[in-house]
Known about the structure:
- This protein is α/β, with parallel strands linked by helices.
- The chain has helices spanning about 1-25, 90-100, 145-160, 190-200, 225-240, 260-270, 290-295, 300-305, 305-315, 345-360, 390-400; strands spanning about 35-45, 50-55, 60-65, 105, 115, 140-145, 160-165, 175, 180, 205-210, 250-255, 275-280, 285, 325-330, 335, 365-370, 400-410, 415-420, 430-435, 440-445, 490-500, 510, 515, 530-535, 540, 545-550.
- Strand 22 and strand 23 (about 515) form a beta hairpin.
Amino acid sequence: MNLKMGSLFWLMGLCFWVFLFCCSFSTVSADTVEGGNKVGGTVFINGKSPIGKIDDDFVCATLDWWPPEKCDYGTCSWGHASLLDLDLNNKILLNAIRAFTPLKLRLGGTLQDKVIYDTEDHNLPCTQFVKNTSELFGFSQGCLPLYRWDELNTFFKKSGAVIIFGLNALSGRFLRTDGSAVGAWDSSNAESLIRYTVTKGYNISGWELGNELSGNGVGTRVAANQYAFDTVSLRNLVQNIYSDVEPKPQIIAPGGFFDQKWFSDFLNKTAKSLDVITHHIYNLGPGVDTHLIEKILDPSYLDGEANTFGRLQSTINSSASSAASWVGEAGGAYNSGRNLVTNAFVFSFWYLDQLGMASAYDTKTYCRQTFIGGNYGLLNTTTFVPNPDFYSALLWHRLMGIKVLATSFSGTKKIRAYAHCAKQSQGITLLLINLDNSTTVEAKITFNDTSTSHHKHKLHRLHRLHKDHHRHRFHSTKVIQFPGGSKTSEMAREEYHLTAKDGNLHSQTMLLNGNILTVNASGDIPPLEPLNVNSSGPITVAPFSIVFAHIPSVVLPACM
């Protein structure tokens, strides 16, 4: 009897400790993380001067033209996400855009170069896209009815979105058998749409010419000299139509993949006409690739895109143009992405790393493909419920200010580190991404250290492509200030720990500080509440997690 009772008490005790152990994982603790390996590391931040500045509405997303019949590898993932039939009355859609106040939206994509606008100069029936594999891009020509343009603009005004519209750049051209498109751009239909837009008082922030026609092009291509001539024509057209309107929309092009010679020729011939040069990124390969997650979790693979950013920055700096650089479309994996990868938690590793890397190379805006549609939408195509990357984008937008700080990490190659001056508040915001599946990292922060030469983060070796004053030359001057003479230990920081539900990288449910993020029955976006943590300790980054840390007590010269 005593033996049985003893065994019972022992079992009850075991259950109690198991319960406590499990509870320790129900929320993210800023002080301790149980299980697995634990290593230390140091974030190095140069606070002397910023290495770049992003737009206040840096986070951007796309809305596309693909109809439901758009399929890839036997999967049709677009549903009714097209600009032509997206449900503009959906409450989640409206609330999701409003959450950014504002969100920049780029309207365009492959089929934009086959869209006709049903304005007064168009005398044919306004027909929709029809799937036809013998046609360029696999679809017939489609048409934008003016009533739909009215509906879209009413919605955009209600949501507060900033709109970039992609114009059909193939109008009037002849397609050769060698894959090139020749002849001058016929701007008459675009002019009619722009005039109608101005007459109606619709606010368009930028007009972009064409989609993926630069360099070798996708489907077809246009020579840099001709594209430059057409861009100048667009500039003149917009200046004329908006003669009594201020501010005038930006002129944006070419919305294609970076080709150094093509971009260089184009920039030098549009020096006084181009406001923004846009390039696209699908560096993970096709959505059908079964190794996407391996690429996303490989620091060396992620570092590869820094070469593109660096060469583009160098090309712009050596040209006669003052155009700003944007990523006009980036979905990571082309042909609509991959379900449960590009719309799941794991993709936030790639996405946030891209936002950080692009910022470090003075990219002003980054447009994610898509806001909704395909397998890479920030919102679920069917339910409109936000995918994990929506919350990653929203936290970036709210926390990361316009000034970018030179940042690197020493301790493990699996940590990605980026820092900006804080947004609309004092201090800095640090982004840490842990690509390791079993190691917890305790990250300390050092400012203006002299150890730049042996920093481990390979991305920043590529910053040699920056101008000399942008290189990571850390100085020993003390730049940290604490208001009111307070000590570091008395100061708090705000931490946002992002993890996947049940630790499953394929999960489409994201946890913030251990709490599930989801909309309520009214379609409201949930509040994003931080943990308040004592600043004297290191930042704990759990395996396969992401941490934003806002540190208001740090005042740097770069942020003044």
